[in-house]
Design a protein that fits this description.
The complex is a heterodimer of chains A (668) and B (182). Chain A has 668 residues and is an alpha+beta fold. In chain A, 39% of the residues lie in helices and 28% in strands. The longest helix of chain A has 33 residues, at 190-222. The relative contact order of chain A is 0.10. The model of chain A is unreliable at 1-28, 178-188 and 434-443 (pLDDT under 50). Chain B is an alpha+beta fold. Chain B has two domains: 2-116, Sandwich (Immunoglobulin-like); 119-182. Chain B has a four-stranded antiparallel sheet, with no helix packed on it. In chain B, strands 7-6-10-11 form a four-stranded antiparallel sheet, with no helix packed on it. In chain B, a hairpin with a 2-residue loop joins β6 and β7. The longest helix of chain B has 61 residues, at 121-181. Chain B is rod-shaped, with a radius of gyration of 37 Å. Classes of the chains: A alpha+beta (668), B alpha+beta (182). Chains A and B meet through β12, β15 and β16 of A and α1 of B.
């Protein structure tokens, strides 16, 4: 009856695990966090490169970024490479883009867990990407789903390592432990040794089968050949796992043919090799991608070692006590029970550490697949600990008289141990929801422009935050043009020249080196609304390059949209005044731009004159002839092609001239 | 003393000069002989030392007290002038680095080009230098692809010959067996 209950409990646990596996994966591996240009963005200036930031570090050699126009023509110029100083970001340079909608197709393999993800987004240069048909692409990137092969590979590898480590631990700590007045050699008799080594050899076969299956699963996920995979950090970790498992196999084989102390040393060597394989596996997993990788990797490794000694040691106990004399059985069970108690404490402590490292909120336990797998592991762990306690405090004491109650509980423990193993394999294949890698924090509002010098020596990616006229934080990421490696030993300055009024003298800001090819400063040099030429001077040794870029400050307006009406833009001006601006594209072939000035009380107030220019992309501005409509209301008109236009407006009043701007998509 | 380039704004690839104007009590110092004062011009890790010479003849041409050392700055960026020498027993040892508070830094000529913007000689040279290894890399990749295709073809050929030989032997053996049975 008890084993029926245990069997039913195991079935329920397995069902729960199945639900974790079957649930749609809301969490991600290397998922898109942000991109430049942003998904769905309408940009005025064509980009020099596409940069995508992921939630986990992607493996550049196994990743691709394709950029296609509406006809399906490719614009990417090279394989993606990491952005200087930011390993989470991949970038690819693109050919010169004209006005149109572009689709970015990306496919990356996470360096953290080897899983592939893919996706696409669109942006528009000069026009809105909304509603544009996707390009006629035959091969959209498709990320493989959760792989059964990977799960089986992981399961076999885990089971094998646990058996090897547990067997070695059992031989060292239980069988060869300090025996009252007896030498270890006496405790380890030949028959027991053979059974223990048979158990370890079985474990080695499982691990040896798991490594190639796991490697094949990662190769399939990467959609690459083994040679390409071997050249990456993922491939190197696979090779090291294989080498460690091979060494463990040699040690187990040596133990089978050796005897006495040499055999014990060989068994210990097998355990050490399995521990090394476990370390490589942990190092190549999610623990290394946390904010404190040293502590988390150490914690995860100790967790695996403790579980192995506990569960694997339990397997070794079952394998070796069969047919042994009752006093020996009793002694072995008692020692194992002590070891299990200690390892249980280690499993609990390291499990809490890992959960704190991976789960940000308590709700993640139920809202994410990873959290649910952790929850199941906790339930199974608690059940195992309870069964262990029953054995430790009741059945072990009675083992000298009868083993029947112990055997019943042991069978339940074995069933739950299998469930725990499957849960661990699933857990390792899911991505944690930690915001350290995949938070939902929106990217800061900023302007980002990029370019390179004529000599194609260096690339600069400049982010300006917040991007309005006034004080801004300017950050330049400088990388080598070909290798994408950050350039750190340079002096970097930026000259700001105002393009809308060339009589205003240019100003220069020196940037401070921040590491990883990044240089930044806080500067008031973008002092006026409008277009600016930024010349990035990168001086290195006896050489220097200048990288010219053009940016337009962001328009500081409040938009009000109404059904069937043009969007109204309100710009706050000095003295409490407000300029109301809108573009009306419905006047025949012409687009009219309306400019009305209101005073602090909301009454229309006198305007001497206005100047309105329209700019599309990086092109020169087009002047729009204007006429007076009323005292404070002017209308400028011009024939504008369908695109996103930026309107720069100068408003002259009796007590000064003010500048403002807004962006509007015409015919989009 | 007043320090600067002879021509400002100053551009890379255009002949210029380091200019030092000396005066005492509002009166120009006109009796400094050529070579009495030297200027060490530095850019990054590169340095050169030049003699300053009068750029005037009193009463005939030039601005009295103005001394120059001609130089063609080849790269845009930050330059430092270190003046050293002596006059009338008074030592001169002053250093100035370009910047908004001192004198103009060197810029590429692209800012003032009209109507078309052309690269400078230095930029063209750098571009050619950058393109050579890229071309070599592409040629090597093409060669490697061709070599790999040849190797594959050779391997397929050997496999084909091997399979053909095996088929021939099998046919011969079966032929003999058939004859024997007959």
């Amino acid at each position: 009856m008890k084993h029926r209950v245990a069997g039913a409990a195991a079935l329920v646990a397995l069902f729960a695990l199945g639900s974790v596996m079957a649930a749609p994966s809301a969490d991600a591996h290397a998922s898109l966090r942000t991109s430049e240009p942003a998904a769905g963005a309408q940009i005025t200036a064509a980009p020099d490169e596409i940069a995508i930031t992921f939630t986990e570090q992607p493996e550049p050699a196994l990743s691709s970024i394709r950029v296609l126009d509406a006809s399906g023509a490719a614009y990417e110029q090279a394989k993606p490479s990491p952005a200087g100083g930011d390993p989470l970001t991949l970038r690819t340079s693109v050919k010169e883009m004209s006005q149109g909608v572009y689709t970015v197709l990306w496919r990356v393999v996470s360096r953290v867990d080897g899983h592939a993800t893919a996706g696409s987004f669109a942006f528009g240069v000069g026009i809105s990407p909304a509603g544009a048909p996707p390009p006629p692409v035959a091969a959209q990137p498709v990320a493989p789903g959760r792989s059964s092969l990977e799960m089986i590979g992981r399961l076999l590898l885990f089971a094998g390592l646990i058996s090897l480590l547990g067997g070695a631990g059992f031989a060292t700590l239980v069988l060869a432990g300090p025996a009252k007045g007896r030498r270890a050699r006496d405790v380890m008799d030949e028959r027991r040794d053979r059974r223990l080594l048979g158990f370890m050899a079985g474990g080695w076969v499982a691990a040896a089968a798991g490594v190639p299956l796991f490697a094949e699963a990662q190769r399939r996920a990467a959609d690459a050949g083994f040679a390409d995979l071997a050249a990456t950090s993922l491939g190197r970790a696979l090779i090291w796992r294989g080498v460690a498992v091979l060494v463990a196999g040699v040690a187990v084989a040596a133990a089978i043919f050796a005897s006495g102390a040499m055999r014990r040393r060989a068994i210990a060597a097998g355990g050490i090799a399995a521990a090394v394989a476990a370390f490589v596996h942990v190092q190549a997993g999610h623990a290394s991608a946390t904010t404190s990788p040293g502590i988390q990797v150490a914690g995860q490794w100790i967790h695996v070692l403790a579980v192995s000694l506990w569960v694997g040691g339990f397997g070794a106990l079952l394998a070796t006590i069969r047919g042994a004399a009752t006093p020996d059985k009793h002694r072995a069970i008692k020692r194992y029970s002590t070891m299990a108690g200690l390892t249980l404490a280690a499993v609990l402590a390291t499990g809490i550490l890992r959960s704190l490292g991976e789960l940000d909120r308590f709700g993640d336990l139920t809202s994410t697949g990873y959290g649910r797998a952790v929850l199941i592991k906790i339930v199974v762990f608690t059940a195992l600990a309870a069964l262990g306690a029953v054995n430790r405090f009741r059945n072990v004491a009675r083992a000298a008289a009868t083993l029947t109650p112990l055997r019943r509980v042991v069978k339940s423990e074995a069933a739950l141990g299998v469930v725990a193993l499957v849960a661990a394999a699933i857990l390792a294949s899911l991505a944690p929801p930690s915001p350290a890698r995949g938070g939902a924090t929106p990217p800061p509002e900023r302007i980002v422009v990029s370019g390179s010098d004529f000599a194609t020596t260096a690339r600069a990616r400049v982010a300006i935050e917040p991007g309005y006229a006034g004080i801004n934080t300017v950050t330049a990421s400088i990388t080598d043009y070909d290798s994408g490696k950050p350039i750190d030993d340079a002096e970097v300055s930026i000259r700001f020249a105002y393009l809308d009024d060339t009589t205003i003298p240019a100003a220069v800001s020196l940037l401070e080196h921040r590491g990883g090819g990044r240089y930044s400063t806080q500067t008031p040099n973008l002092s006026l609304d409008g277009r600016w030429r930024l010349t990035i001077l990168v001086q290195q040794g006896s050489g220097s390059v200048e990288i010219p870029l053009v940016v337009a400050t962001r328009c500081r307006v409040t938009a009000t949209a109404a059904e069937g009406q043009p969007t109204l833009y309100d710009a706050m001006l000095p003295g409490g005044r407000t300029a109301q601006l809108y573009a009306d594209p419905t006047q025949g072939a012409k687009t009219e731009v309306h400019v009305t000035l209101f005073d602090a009380e909301g009454t229309e107030t006198f305007v001497r004159s206005v100047g309105v220019t329209a700019t599309r992309g990086g092109a020169d501005p087009i002047g729009m002839p204007h006429r007076r409509f009323s005292d404070g209301h002017f209308i400028a008109a011009g024939e504008l092609a369908p695109a996103t236009w930026r309107f720069d407006i100068g408003i002259a009043t009796p007590d000064g001239t003010f500048k403002t701007c807004f962006e509007e998509t015409i015919g989009g | 003393m007043v320090v600067g380039w002879g021509s400002e704004p100053a551009y890379a690839g255009i002949v210029n000069s380091v200019q030092l104007t000396l005066s005492r009590g509002g009166e120009p110092l006109t009796d400094v002989a050529a070579g009495d004062i030297k200027v060490e011009v530095s850019f990054g890790d590169q340095k050169t030392t030049l003699d300053l010479e009068p750029a005037f003849v009193v009463g005939r041409f030039g601005t009295p007290g103005q001394y120059v050392a001609h130089l063609l700055p080849t790269r845009a960026g930050n330059y430092t002038f270190k003046f050293a020498g002596s006059h009338d027993g008074q030592k001169l040892d002053s250093t100035f680095t370009c910047g908004e508070q001192t004198f103009a830094c060197i810029e590429e000529t692209v800012a003032i080009q009209f109507p078309e913007k052309d690269p400078s000689l230095a930029e063209l040279g750098d571009r050619i230098e950058r393109e050579f290894p890229r071309v070599e890399q592409r040629v090597a990749a093409v060669r490697s692809d061709v070599g790999s295709s040849a190797d594959t073809a050779r391997l397929l050929g050997i496999i084909g010959i091997g399979l053909g030989a095996v088929a021939l032997i099998v046919a011969l053996v079966r032929g003999r067996g058939g004859k024997a049975r007959a």
